[in-house]
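[step 3/7] inverse_fold.run input=structure_tokens len=589
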């Protein structure tokens, strides 16, 4: 093919050659490039010239072409077809110059579906790379052409909070006040990897001072980042390293003999003369000897500095499927400082901008039974909205027996108080807010005081984690003596917090709940059914039965009892014809 024309961003300052930077665009048939293509040297782009970036390249090429370019570690290359006049469906791959070892891939990165491709590439290795254009998917199409542009810029310096001792201090109040941050171009910190997430490096650091309550929450919200995690550290010597006097190290050895190893733990960072950067403690041999991860670069007996890094928590996802990490604490020492390490999961592409805050969580007023909110029993369900945000587990001074069997206590719980109405039966229901999968249990106070110490005993069977197969919000129906007080515990099935609604209604027995309200059945020719219900019917006591009844009616699972009487019922005489038997029917389930 003819030599392609290159368009530079700036006018040439002279004539002649060779051109400092070249693109080689040989065509080939089929979806796989040949492995034996020769690449000309690209003058000026080897080693010493890697501190400079070439000018903007612009070249027309088709889906039978590939481009090669010598790229330098430490530069950011933007390779794009987005400026093409033609709207075509392409993919773009960056590989090693031999066509093997793929480093980056894009499909539709310019925005439209089935559109053009773009890649922002930060090479880890200084070498020649191949940029391959296909029609999607992997089709060599000489008729599909566009304009390829390549621009370059040096990698910016890491963010100011790239290391823990330059951590950004987050203000701590009783509300979450987000600050927008980024981990772009961050580097890895030379301490052991966090215990959660797939740590690729690229971490940034924040700090927060624990309030007097000892309670602290760290909340995040992803902006351009797609999947991040956080780890939290505490300790006495995080940024103010303490000295280990008399630490003798020998060239090539990982063993150091010091005056005292008290307080050291594996993973502490070690610095000092002849100690390689990134060295950490790998073992504590005895009271005066320890080993490090990298051999000493020389002989020395000067003081060594050791930093203590103790991970106290790590969270990759607030809840499964929610990539924003969240962590809450109680009982932290005041006024200690904790350090927060934010990092992308698995690879740098998951990072970017995010929001973060630290705040003192204030539990809701009904966090414990002592502050239970009264739910009125109304004729219709009129739910009021409440929140589980910052709720904590049941106070240690209270005992709830047994542990709820209907749903795992995923986070903090909140409490409500409901009084049994005169009907002797009620239904307590919850409705979705930002939470839609919760659980609920009802208790009575059986010992001690409601504000502790005391014991709450669950009402038999009064635990529910979904009203139906399609409604994952709980509902309870309870029967008991009018005036009984019940304490209702509501919690989410995961650690996520949010809002929900709750209401209580009386369950009214049917009109024929007792003999005095017996419904008269019309005698018809043939069996013609009428519909009735036993929902919320109560137990009939002996005093309510017909005085003419001469003994108990045995109960079965479904039983019809036919009662005959010539006396009175409900205090009124039953006038029956001498030749007719007056009967009433009792239906039990």
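[step 3/7] decode complete -> sequence:
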């Amino acid at each position: 093919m003819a030599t392609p024309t290159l368009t530079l961003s700036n006018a040439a300052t002279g004539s002649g050659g060779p051109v400092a930077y070249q693109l080689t665009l040989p065509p080939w048939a089929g979806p796989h490039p040949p492995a034996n293509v020769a690449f000309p040297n690209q003058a000026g782009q080897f080693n010493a010239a890697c501190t400079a970036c070439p000018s903007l390249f612009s070249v027309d090429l088709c889906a039978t072409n590939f481009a090669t370019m010598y790229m330098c570690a430490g530069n950011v290359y933007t390779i794009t077809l987005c400026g093409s006049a033609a709207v075509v469906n392409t993919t773009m791959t960056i590989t090693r110059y031999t066509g093997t070892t793929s480093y980056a891939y894009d499909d539709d990165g310019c925005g439209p579906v089935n559109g053009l491709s773009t890649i922002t590439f930060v090479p880890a290795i200084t070498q020649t790379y191949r940029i391959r254009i296909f029609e999607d998917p992997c089709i060599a199409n000489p008729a599909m052409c566009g304009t390829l542009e390549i621009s370059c810029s040096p990698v910016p310096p890491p963010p100011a909070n790239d290391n823990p001792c330059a951590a950004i201090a987050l203000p701590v109040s009783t509300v979450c006040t987000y600050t927008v941050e980024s981990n772009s171009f961050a580097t890895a910190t030379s301490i052991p990897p966090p215990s959660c997430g797939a740590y690729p490096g690229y971490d940034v650091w924040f700090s927060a001072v624990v309030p007097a309550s000892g309670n602290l929450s760290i909340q995040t919200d992803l902006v351009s980042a797609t999947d991040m995690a956080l780890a939290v550290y505490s300790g006495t010597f995080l940024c103010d390293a303490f000295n280990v006097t008399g630490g003798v190290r020998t060239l090539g050895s990982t063993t150091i003999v010091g005056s005292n190893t008290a307080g050291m733990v594996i993973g502490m960072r070690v610095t000092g003369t002849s100690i390689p950067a990134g060295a950490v403690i790998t073992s504590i041999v005895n009271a005066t000897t320890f080993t490090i991860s990298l051999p000493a670069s020389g002989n020395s007996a000067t003081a060594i500095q050791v930093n203590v890094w103790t991970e106290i928590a790590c969270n990759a996802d607030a809840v499964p499927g929610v990539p924003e990490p969240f962590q809450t604490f109680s009982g932290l020492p005041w006024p200690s400082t904790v350090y927060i390490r934010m990092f992308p999961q698995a690879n740098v592409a998951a990072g970017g901008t995010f929001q973060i805050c630290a705040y003192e969580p204030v539990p809701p007023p009904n966090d414990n039974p002592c502050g239970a909110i009264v739910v009125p029993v109304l004729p219709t369900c009129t739910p009021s909205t409440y929140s589980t945000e910052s709720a904590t587990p049941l106070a240690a001074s209270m005992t709830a027996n047994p542990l709820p069997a209907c749903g795992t206590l995923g986070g903090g719980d909140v409490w409500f108080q409901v009084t049994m109405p005169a009907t002797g039966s009620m239904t307590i229901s919850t409705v979705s807010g930002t939470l839609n999968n919760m659980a609920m249990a009802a208790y009575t106070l059986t010992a001690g005081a409601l504000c502790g110490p005391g014991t709450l005993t669950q009402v038999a069977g009064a635990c529910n984690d979904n009203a139906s197969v399609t409604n994952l919000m709980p509902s309870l129906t309870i029967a008991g003596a009018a005036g009984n007080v019940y304490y209702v515990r509501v919690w989410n099935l995961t650690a996520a917090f949010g809002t929900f609604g709750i209401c209580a209604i009386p369950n009214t027995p049917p009109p024929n709940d007792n003999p005095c309200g017996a419904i008269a059945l019309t005698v018809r020719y043939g069996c013609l059914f009428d519909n009735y219900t036993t929902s919320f019917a109560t137990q009939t006591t002996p005093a309510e039965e017909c005085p003419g009844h001469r003994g108990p009616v045995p109960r079965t699972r479904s039983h019809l009892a036919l009662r005959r009487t010539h006396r009175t019922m409900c205090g009124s005489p039953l006038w029956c014809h001498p030749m007719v038997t007056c009967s009433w029917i009792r239906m039990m389930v």
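[step 4/7] annotate
The longest strand covers residues 438-448.
Residues 1-155 form a domain with the Jelly Rolls fold (CATH 2.60.120).
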